[in-house]
Each structure stands twice: as structure tokens, then as C-alpha cells.
Amino acid sequence: MLEAAPRMAPGEQKAPSTGNPEVWHRSVASSLSGSRPTQALESSSERAPCPPRPAPRPAPPLPSSLAKWTADVPPPPRQAGPGGEKMALSRGLRCCQRVFGWVPVAIITLVVLWSYYAYVFELCLVTVTSSIEKVAYLTIFHVIFLFFIWTYWKSIFTLPQQPDKKFHMSYADKERYENEERPEGQRQILAEMARKLPVYTRAGNGAIRFCDRCQLIKPDRCHHCSVCAMCVLKMDHHCPWVNNCIGFSNYKFFLLFLAYSLLYCLYIAATVFKYFIKYWTEELTNGRAKFHILFLLFVAIMFFVSLLFLFGYHCWLVSQNRSTLEAFSAPVFPTGPDKNGFNLGIKKNLQQVFGEKKRLWFLPVISSQGDGHFFPTRTLSEARNPLLASEEQWEEDGLDDDNLGKDGKCIWNLLFWGESLCCNSKVLWHVND
Ligand SMILES: [Zn+2]
Ligand SMILES: [Zn+2]
Asked: What residues form the membrane-spanning segments (predicted)?
């Protein structure tokens, strides 16, 4: 109603000029109260007979937007416009994506639960006859199982860390940035903002890396994940098997999860093998246990082989101080792209991920160095000064940081099967930068 009043004024303002302000006022009042102007006129003539007046001007047709307020009949149900439908569709898709995101986790959980049952019940309690062997098998199994579950849990439920508030655009900067139409001007604004921040890496064209979705200057090694819809500090990749982004906050947990998964599979395969042979030579005849033990060995070996590749690859990445994304597209420094830009030597690289206290290395507790916003570089003294970068260098460079990970097929082809075990459902190309 309040919105309708100013809209009707221009059409109705002509009424006073006819010499009948009352009609105009009544017309406005009746429109506002929801009754039709003609009805208002009729009722006024009934209540107070008065000298003949000039015939009232017919009320001008109301704008369609106003008509719905004045009509006696209830307005028709609102039809969602194309924009509304799009929004609802994208919301629906996001919802489905969120639900289906848990499917791989559910599959892994079911496999793990089955392996626990098969090992503890079918192997140790039903098949193994020696009590000492039983106790030894079960004790070691449960220690490894505990660490395996603990690291898996931490990989799934440790939230990816977003950049600090100081990397976000202030309102004033945002306004300046949006009002500036020239790309050079926008780059200049970002460069001014970045002067106060410990940001040394650049986009492929030499500009400060900026996320227009999160409206922030990306810290070094930070990338935007379109699945998580946010910028993630030291993003490595989005892993469907943990339904989480692997980045600064949980990279150590992810590595430990791979390590304990390998150990879990290796331990199962090693202890089951003896009984697998026994069933094969028909020394043991329990049919149900035979089925579980056979599959236990098969599944353990299958996962062991695939995880070995993935773990080996990540060990190499840690030794080089590279994230998976950086292995495919080198980070760009003011001096140019450099794959080894963050490589400080194996010892320091390891300490960056696992921390300085070696006793914490194998526990899924936070011990990584730094806060994920700043990483020492090999050539920090040069990289520290953004003015060292010349514009020409960036123009010639030709690399575009925005293309990082978009060419999913290219990355996909380079991934070997072990990596694909973890990343096989469009992982890397969810990275927008
Ligand atoms: Zn972002
Ligand atoms: Zn993600």
C-alpha cells in the first residue's frame, strides 16, 4: 500500500484542476483503502445531496502494478519470473550437490564398517584359533583403526580456512573499485590495497589476485573453490572422498589419513594372507568366513595399491613444498612464475606442514607452521618488493592465473589413477583460480 501511493499521484493530480478537490481526495482515499473510485463517488452522492456538480472525470486507468492493490478480487498467485526460477533451480542444484557430496563418504564408511566386521568377527573371532594370535591381531588392528578413523574424521570435519578479514575489501575500496571502469585503474586500486598485506604472488597478467565472488585479495597460495563457494587458504584440491576442501587447515590430517589408510590396508592384507592360503588349500572350511576373508584381502590390496600412488605423489609434493594446484600451474611471483617459489629444502618444507615438534607429526592435531596467510619464499627479498615487477614482463608472460584448473581435461589427463581415486569427480576444475 505504501508503495502504491506515490505511483498513483501523477495520474490523479490532475483532478484538483477540474475544480473538485473533494473528488480527488476521495478518489485517492478510496484507492488507498482498496475500493474502486466509482464506488466511492456513488456513496458520497447518497450520503450528502448537494448542488449539481460537473460530471466527475473518469478516473484514469490505474497502472497494472497499482491495480493489484485496488482490485476487490484477491490478486492472482504470483508467477515466478525467469530470474526467480533460475534462483530456485540453482538453490535446488546446490541442495542436491550438498546431499550427493556425502555419497562417496558414505561408501567409504560402509566399506570400513564391513572391513571391521570381517576382520574382527570373521577372521579373529571365528577363524583364528590361537588366543595369543587373536589378542595380538585385535590389539594392533584397533590401534591402527583408531588412528585411521581419527584422521578420516579430522579430514572431513575440519573446516577449510578462509582468509582473514584484513584481506576483504572495505566498503570504501569496494565502491572505488566498482566505480572504476578502466582495468588499469582497478589494478591500481588492488595494488594500493595489497601494499598493506603480505601478498607476493600475482595473477598471470601481473595483477594482484582478487576474488570477485568473495570480494577479497587472495593471500598467497589461496584459491577459490566453487564447490565450497569460498576462498580456501593454501588450497590443495577439493576431495570428494572426504567431501571437503583440502587446504591449510587440514592438509596434515589428509596426509595422515592417507598414511593410516595405507597402514590399515597393509596390516589387513598381511594378517589375512595366511588364512587366505589356508582356505585355498582347504585346511579351513567355514564357507561364510572364507567369503569375507577372500574379499578382505582383495579390497585391502586394491585400496593399498591406489592409495600408495596418491600418498607417494603427496609425499613428493610436500618435499617440494607445492600444493596439487601449484604442481600443475606454477605460482607467479613478481619475478615471474616459479614452481619452486616456496621450496625451502626438505626439512623446512616438512616442518611447514607437520610443525617443528616431531612427536606431533603422526597425531592429527594442529601443528602446521604459520596461519596460512603467509609463506616464506625462496626469493623473498626480491619478491617482497612488488615494484620490481615490470608491466612488460607480465604482458609477455602470457600465463593467466584465472585459467588455473579450468582446463579440467588437461589436469585430468595428467592425473594418474591413484590421484584420481581421490579426485575423480571434477575436483581440480572446481577451482576457479
Ligand atoms: Zn573466493
Ligand atoms: Zn572445496
From this structure: 99-119, 135-153, 253-277, 289-313
